[in-house]
Design a protein that fits this description.
K_chnl_dom, mainly alpha, Helix Hairpins, about 160 residues
Length: about 160
């Protein structure tokens, strides 16, 4: 786990700002997500191709059909023109459905957040931390001035007695 964490820090996938907040490089993460998505589509498409073309009566006639089936499963469209009939094909489609929806949904959520500017708690937290630091500095200055005034007032009371 420590090796993975060190690799993540060196990979420029995120930078830690002065407040200790991780700021992710969403461009790199999106590219990696789409590469992973393509790899899973190609791999599970091949598994489906091998499983389905060996069975007579399967709608999957070639690799293009299997790849199309994976794409339609991963996007939840599923036209129904190509479908698996073997257990291995059905498991591959199920896995692609779960993984594809997860990857595409995650990338879509990040994209929507960046484009439409939904609440970014990291930015709000940084602003609040900055404001808190300024308020604490101001309070410290006020405390020092108040202490100096109290000392002067105490000295003045001693002189007048």
């Amino acid at each position: 786990m420590i090796i993975l964490q060190n690799a993540m820090e060196k990979s420029n996938l995120y930078k830690v700002d002065e407040f200790g907040v991780k700021n992710y490089n969403y461009g790199i993460l999106a590219i990696l997500s789409f590469i992973l998505f393509a790899f899973i589509n190609v791999s599970l498409g091949y598994v489906t191709f091998v499983a389905e073309t060996a069975v007579e009566g399967s709608p999957v006639k070639n690799y293009a059909d299997a790849f199309w089936l994976m794409l339609m499963s991963s996007t939840t469209i599923g036209f129904g023109d190509v479908y698996p009939i073997t257990l291995a094909g059905r498991i591959a489609v199920f896995a692609m459905f779960i993984l594809g929806v997860g990857i595409l949904g995650g990338v879509g959520a990040v994209f929507a957040n960046k484009v439409f500017g939904f609440a970014d708690t990291n930015i709000k937290n940084r602003e609040l931390r900055q404001q808190n630091e300024e308020i604490l500095l101001q309070n410290d200055k006020i405390y020092q001035k108040l202490s100096a005034l109290e000392d002067k007032l105490a000295a003045f009371e001693k002189e007048t007695k």
